[in-house]
Structure formats: C-alpha cells, structure tokens
Amino acid sequence: MRNRPLLQMAVIGAIGIIIGIPVALAIPWFPADGSTQAHNIHTLYTVLLIVSVPIFVLVETVVLYSVWKFRMKPGEEEKDGPPIHGNTRLEVVWTALPAILIVGLCGYAYSVLRSNEKTHPGAMVVNVTERQFAFQFGYPGPGGKERLSPDLFLPRGQPVVLHLRSVDVVHSFFVPEFSVKIDAVPGITTTLRITPTRLGSYPAECTELCGAGHSLMRAPVRVVTPDAFRTWLAHQSPKAPPPIGTPPPDVLNSGEPGYASGTSGSGGGSG
Is 269 exposed, middle or buried (0-12, 13-18, 19+ CB in 10 A)? Predict the structure, then answer.
C-alpha cells in the first residue's frame, strides 16, 4: 500500500507523456524548412521537445497528485506530518541525471551551431546593405563592380555567405523560412551563412526597431533554380544606380557594400 501513490503517479505520468509528445510534435512551431540551417534547427527543437515534455509531465504529475492526495483536510491545521529523512542515493541521482542531460543537449546544440556556421568552399558572396527602411543586395560583377538589386535572388542548393552592413542605425536580417538571423550594426560587417533548399518566395524582415518605418522594412527573397539564377544575374547591369538611392556623403566609403566613394545615382530614396 505504501507504493500505491508512486504507482498511480507513474501511470498518470506515462499516460501524460504518451499524449503530450505527439501533441507537442504536431504543433507547427516553424514554417516549412527553406534551408539546410532551418532543417538543423528544427531537428534540434524536436529533440528538445521530446526531452522536455516527459520532464514537464512528470514534475506536474507529482505536484498535482500531491496537492490532491496529500492536501490538508479540515481539522488538520495544527497536525504535523511524519518526519522525513534525506535519501543520499536519490539526491545523487536527481543531481547527476539532469547534469548529464543538460551537458548532452548543450553539446548537441553547439554541434548544430558549428554545422550552420561552417564555411563551404565555393560559397557565393552577397553584400547586404541596410538603411532606413530598405534592403539592398549586391552581387559580384565584372571589373569589381556590383550588380545591385532590391530583391534577394538565391540559387537552390548553393551555399551563400551574406555580408551585412548598416549605413545608419542597428537593423537586422531575418527570413523565417531560413530560421537564421543576425543584426546589421553600423561600422562593422556581420556574416550570415545560408544554403537554400526550397524553391519559392519568402520575406526578409528587419527585426530590430529601427525607426518609424520599421514595420515596412521588408524585401522579397526568391529561391530559384541555378539556371534561372544565372539567367537573372546575366540581365543585371553593374552600372545601374543603387535601387534604394544614394546614401548620405558621410557613409560613402570603400568598406560599404554596394557603394564606392564618389558614387552617384538616383533611386527611391531612403524611405
């Protein structure tokens, strides 16, 4: 009879786990995988769910069962419970097992991070310039001049390195289908690696509050076949003016992707 509460909690916990894991995995936490990095991150999240749900269910089972089964009844306000002595073996187990679990999950998460940031030989470089409130994408062109575009075109299956710069305030670059994000900070260049795997059009968003037009700062991301990408790139002129307008003179410097000292051109302005 002394083990009956333990058996009941074990049964309730097992039922909760059997129901909880499929429910957690059935929830669409992310959009469809659009890149290799997204697949890696979503797999990591699935592993975390599978590990976290049983722990949550078991803890809540013990708490709720204890509240129901061992709650104080009327007339027992001054009654003291039986003395309880520590159990060293149990304390070692519940300290060691979570420690091993955390180290294992952190190691797996680190391996995913390293895989997503791995440098691939032959990766295509795209310079991303951000300003209030627009994106501009630069592709290497003949004579060191860039082909500039307000849309980000990427060939499927091609590793891509994005070099991000901001000409005014802190911005960010995030494509939900790629599940990777990084800030664009004035004065430095940040790097983001993507390998698109799914054809389609997705939105690139700024996820840092950058001013009154922040909510409108978006750009189309188009993942196309390699042949379609080569055709599109061949039709882009390296002499075209910047699609988001000429930046202020104080940000015209050789380190700014998409611009060079003395650049002139017309465009849509800075929004």
Answer: exposed
Residue of 186, 185, 162 whose CA lies nearest to 250: 186
Q: Which domain range does residue 168 map to?
A: 124-251
* Residue 270 DSSP class: T
Same domain? 105 vs 185 = no
> Rounded to an integer, what distance in angstroms lies between the CA atom of residue 152 and that of residue 139?
10
The tokens of 225 are what? 């076949």
Q: Domain total for the chain?
A: 2
Residue 80 lies in a domain: no
Mean per-residue pLDDT over the chain, rounded: 85
pLDDT, tens only, 34-73 = 999 999 999 999 999 999 999 999 999 999 988 888 877 7
Cβ atoms of 42 and 25 within 8 Å: the answer is no
Distance CA 31, CA 174 (A): 13
